Amino acid sequence: MITLAVDAMGGDAGLDVTVPGAIAFLKQQSNVHLIMVGDESALKSALAAAQAPMDRITVIHSTQVVEMDEAPQLALKNKKDSSMRVAINQVKEGHAQAAVSAGNTGALMATARFVLKTIPGIERPAIAKFLPSASDHVTLMLDLGANVDCTAEQLMQFAVIGSELYQALYPAKGRPRVGLLNVGTEEIKGTDTVKQTFKLLSESNLNFIGNVEGNTVFTGNVDVIVADGFVGNIVLKTIEGAVKFMGGAIKQEFKANLFTKAAALVSMPALKGFKNKFDPRRFNGAIFLGLRGVVIKSHGGTDAVGFAFALEEAYHEANAASLAKIEQGVASQLAVLAEKQLESEHAAMADNLG
Questions:
Q1: Which InterPro entries does the UniProt record give (predicted)?
Q2: So what's the architecture of 127-281 in CATH?
Q3: Nearest to 103 by CA among 118, 83, 117, 89
């Protein structure tokens, strides 16, 4: 039985989204138990009204809620009994295999990092997300906003944890292909940090395929794309805006006249397929990767369908025991890097002596 901790009060709509989303998720997965954290009276009332299966839900009371615009450090300092903090504590104490929240992103990251700490060898956690691509393939991209400025070593660490997560969730696909997001595929292109990262990745045991450009995200030719949080967040927001624009433009064109309205009826099956494939709710659930615990961030403005998919993401990671596999993989990769660095230092010493 997989147990997930849920911040029931987080997000723009709170219980109006988290409760129906949780119930929808429980209908899809039979071997899951939810620990839902929030104001006990309000939460139990909402669950009762929705006829929730209470034999599969435990309610834990919390007295505080982190507001969506609250400063992360203030939330960390002053909201120790928030639904967000208590949910993450369930993971730390071993009562749940993962925590899910639609609350304040900055506060969630600060709290999760403080409570759970990072995996040994990982300096900073990254925000990772699976994106749809060609032929039902999915591409993992990180970092998507947690770390605006990164060193080459940190980007290398993102590549390691991203590769290990992909391998844990999709073992049948073989060694994940790792690409470094850049302005061109040539090794000489990019900032000094990107060039240094390229060198580190080339010397690693990862399946590094080189630099990739932004137009590679949806081709299915790469499994893990690494970038700093500044670039990654811009790419993500651009994708979200482009999909929204395309959907609106197609809808507007089909409403232009009677002929296009008739064409829309004929095209409806294809249009529905397109909408489902790129529905952002289906890919809701960003992963705070690099922590000693699984934490999933749902979009704050999502609906119940989207929140259910965030719970689904947490379930798959917990079910695949992804955290243990990531920790093992990180230790192995960092050992290889340390050994190669030592060899380089010995070679440099030998050259100097010669």
A1: FA_synthesis (IPR003664), Phospholipid_synth_PlsX-like (IPR012281)
A2: 3-Layer(aba) Sandwich (3.40)
A3: 83
